[in-house]
Design brief:
The protein has 26 helices and 23 strands. 55% of the residues are buried. The structure holds thiamine diphosphate.
């Protein structure tokens, strides 16, 4: 008796094969699309394997032995796409592309796809892709970066990877991971196509092609007509993408294996040979609802469900296999049974395999591990930074310069020394950046290594991830801190999670330069003066650097690049806009904020704070960073008249916070003032003060922070920010014991 959707579906398949009640095999022959009988059999078997894994996931899930039941049933036509690709073609997969993955894995003789996927369903620590951290579709060997049940967030990086393939070819990048003629593929659902992230990525692909640039990209929309319970209007996907400039559109019945092979071959030709993006629209069905927990009939009619079941791609494949004389009915049923048994055995054994049993084990993959470190693309070894100034503006490098100029020189040094480095973002090319931080880089290094992107932060960060997937160490720029927020998921949900979901085997190193923070003179305004970085504080593995002076910035940017290139880290390099052009510290002409690039040696290690002022016993320690450190230096000079001994700790590295170093630097202090230019809520000082309390620091501690407000336009902006006068006042109050608890 078939009670559950999967039992009903499995029984219907067998009954219809038995009675040869199958859809017409159509008029495409396997030979005409270049498939041998053996290829066809393998494809059919991959589809059956995927289906039986879905069935088993429901059975084992019921008893709590497996933990994921979003399946691929109805989408198995995607295996035919895998069949025509090379395993060196990188694929970012929709969570219903299980059959694609199985077909790809089976192109490697020693592959064990059922076992691998069973381990993943069971969240076993032996899962070869994520090490038991998530049910992912992925393969380290065969170029499928692990993907969870993300919708749309993987599209920007797919576009980026396609771009990276052509860029590596143009630049003859020595350490490219993908061959020059590789294509990038990304699959996604019809509802996902409406997501602004998908829209941005597809737009970015189309625009790239419209500009005449090569982009070997296949966008596979697996259109089952519904997203959980919400239908996609009939014809929406076709109407939207059929006549899109820059995009080639192909539509096919995604349930018919040979039709899919034919269309996929055409798509591959367009992407690989013509190097143009192609939108491959597979019309699929979704069988058994969205997931195991989903009661589909609560929002769909039984007739609609039955219509989809009638289009089950396994029926179409069985029909073709029969018509091609590959297997007879009995053998199809035998194969079905045999696959079911193999899946059952694999699942049973996988459920008994060890799980991750400690936080340490779970977290061991937050950063790229030995497997990545051993095989990482080498960054060009000699980064003996300031020895070779030939590619830089020698006059600028040998005379005192302000922050933005020093940053441009440092980027120039990195570009000169490391062929993997690329600098890109809005207006970084010809204009040289809104504030000149990339000035003269494009003329020196060319439009392939320093270039303007379109105006979309998700695309910029997706491009960075894509470039990193192909051996580059990208240095994307986000023009203003406020504008990273609409794209933060590319850092939070994509870039920073890659090592976690790949058991530390994969990484997408990058240094994301972001101009930000407040205090812009005569300007103000919320978007150009954003002073909130809470969004970066809780992302495991992320590094946030923020220099308050040009010499530190030079050394920190070099370190950031090395951390990315050699350790696979994702680094946010936050640049205080208000300090970009500052030359003097205390008085006009003192030049204390100007530094000679050729005199700045080496790097500045991660976590090392700057200590200024007297060592040993002091009356007060001020802890700050960025503009706050600049203002504190000035305030300390003002306070000198009081005859107090004051030390400054410039944090420099905001995430992770080196609380131990601050505790050590507080040794001998009578009081501590934290000056934090970010909002009171969510600012780095929240974490710092918690850390100090947890470590039992006994001195009185006060915080001077920005208000929990947005930054208004004009002079009013200073009302909600810490000021030099405010620091002096707070310091005096602390020193005089006011407000002690
Ligand atoms: C950003 C985001 N929003 C919402 C969800 C929840 N969600 C998961 S799958 C899904 C439906 C996606 O439908 P579609 O793209 O058509 O793919 P299908 O499941 O039909 O294959 C939704 C809304 C999500 N995973 N991510």
């Amino acid at each position: 008796m078939a009670d559950t959707p999967h039992e009903r579906l499995a029984a219907a398949f067998r009954a219809r094969v038995q009675t040869a009640d199958l859809p017409s095999p159509g008029n495409i022959s396997a030979a005409s699309v270049g498939l041998s009988k053996q290829d066809l059999l393998r494809l059919f078997e991959s589809q059956l394997m995927s289906r039986h894994l879905d069935y088993a996931a429901r059975v084992f899930g019921k008893t709590g032995q497996t933990f994921y039941s979003i399946g691929s049933a109805g989408h198995e036509g995607n295996a035919a796409v895998a069949a025509v690709l090379e395993t060196t073609d990188i694929a970012f997969l929709h969570y219903r592309s299980g059959a694609f993955l199985i077909e790809r894995l089976r192109q490697q003789p020693e592959a064990t796809p059922l076992w691998d996927m069973a381990l993943s369903f069971a969240a076993s620590a032996e899962d070869p892709v994520s090490g038991g951290r998530h049910k992912v579709l992925g393969s380290h060997l065969l170029n499928v970066p692990p993907q969870t049940s993300t919708i749309a967030s993987h599209l920007p990086k797919a576009v980026g990877t396609a771009y990276a393939i052509t860029l590596a070819r143009r630049l003859r990048l020595q350490h490219a991971r993908l061959p020059d003629d590789a294509v990038a593929l990304v699959s996604f659902g019809d509802a996902s196509a409406n997501h602004s992230t998908a829209q941005g990525a597809i737009n970015s692909a189309a625009l790239t092609a419209y500009r005449g640039l090569p982009l070997p990209l296949i966008l596979v929309c697996e259109d089952n007509g519904i997203g959980i319970s919400v239908p996609t209007p009939d014809g929406w996907i076709a109407q939207t993408y059929r006549n899109r400039p820059g995009l080639h559109y192909l539509a096919v019945d995604g349930c018919h294996p040979l039709a899919v092979v034919a269309a996929a071959r055409e798509a591959v030709h367009i992407a690989r040979v013509q190097r143009r993006p192609v939108f491959l629209h597979l019309k699929t069905v979704r069988l058994m609802g969205h997931a195991g927990s989903d009661l589909e009939t609560s929002y769909r009619s039984s007739a609609a469900v039955a219509m989809d079941e009638d289009r089950d791609p396994l029926l179409a494949s069985a029909s073709v296999v029969l018509a091609e004389g590959v297997l007879d009915q009995e053998r199809i049923l035998d194969l079905d049974e045999q696959v079911a048994r193999r899946v059952q055995r694999a699942m049973q054994r996988a459920c008994e395999r060890p799980k991750l049993t400690s936080a340490t084990a779970v977290m061991s993959a937050l950063l790229p591990g030995v497997q990545w470190l051993q095989h990482r693309p080498q960054i060009d070894a000699d980064l003996a930074w300031n020895t070779d100034l030939s590619a830089l503006d020698a006059r600028a490098a040998t005379s005192p310069q302000h922050l933005s100029r020093l940053l441009a020189l440092t980027l120039g040094g990195i570009l000169a020394k490391s062929s993997q480095a690329v600098v890109f973002g809005e207006d970084v090319g010809r204009k040289g950046g809104v504030y000149g931080a990339t000035t003269q880089l494009q003329p020196a290094f060319g439009t392939s290594r320093v270039f303007d992107t379109l105006l979309d932060e998700q695309s910029i960060l997706g491009l960075a991830i894509g470039l990193a997937h192909n051996g580059f160490v990208p240095l994307p720029e986000i023009q203003f801190l406020a504008y990273v927020h609409n794209a933060e998921d590319q850092i939070r949900g994509e870039a920073a999670t890659l090592s976690f979901f790949s058991d530390g085997r994969a990484a997408n190193p990058m240094v994301i330069r972001i101009a930000g923070l407040a205090y812009q003179r005569g300007f103000g305004g919320h978007f150009h003066n954003d002073n909130a970085i809470a969004v970066f504080r809780d992302i495991p593995g992320l590094i946030v650097a923020c220099a308050s002076r040009g010499d530190d910035a030079v050394r920190m940017l070099r370190s950031a690049y090395r951390l990315a290139g050699e350790q696979g880290r994702v680094v946010v390099f936050l640049e205080p806009i208000a300090l970009y052009g500052i030359k003097d510290l205390h008085r006009e002409g003192d030049g204390l904020m100007s530094f000679r690039y050729d005199g700045i040696d080496g790097e500045l290690p991660l976590g090392e704070p700057g200590l200024e002022g007297p060592a040993g016993d002091v009356d007060l320690v001020i802890v700050s960073y960025g503009n706050g450190a600049y203002l504190s230096r000035r305030a300390i000079a003002e306070l000198a008249a009081d005859g107090r001994r004051i030390r400054l700790i410039d944090l420099r590295w905001l995430v992770p916070l080196n609380v131990d170093a601050v505790v050590a630097a507080l040794n001998g202090a009578s009081a501590c003032l934290i000056v934090d230019e970010c909002r009171r809520s969510g600012s780095p000082s929240e974490g710092l003060i918690t850390g100090l309390v947890e470590q039992g620091v006994a001195v009185p501690i006060r915080r001077l922070t920005a208000a929990d407000s947005f930054i208004p336009l004009g002079p009013a902006s200073y009302e909600v920010l810490p000021s030099q006068a405010g620091i002096v006042k707070a310091a005096r109050e602390l020193l005089e014991g006011y407000g002690e608890s």
